[in-house]
Amino acid sequence: MAVIVDYTTDLNTSFDLSRGTSQLYELIEKRDVTTQELAHNTLAYALRKNQKLADNLFISILDDGLLIDYGLGIEKRGSNIFSVEGILRFNVEKTQRKANLY
Description:
Helices cover about 25% and strands about 30% of the residues. The chain has about 100 residues and is an alpha+beta fold. The termini are far apart.
């Protein structure tokens, strides 16, 4: 899952890029200052608390983990497009019952 913030239109203004980057971190994985637990309004929290997508379909965060990477995209998404990006990596697994062979 990719969260991309386009900063192209803000480059001509006095925009604080580090402030925008902090907002991206807060959207993805903000934590409570005292407990260090994920805030309830973050994507990481939603993925961890809502692992069952349907019958036999699950987000498998507890097994392989949730990997989160951040980066700055300079013309990565096209000419003259500058972005700050957060990439969330996780697996989705479908389970099914094994046929009774005996």
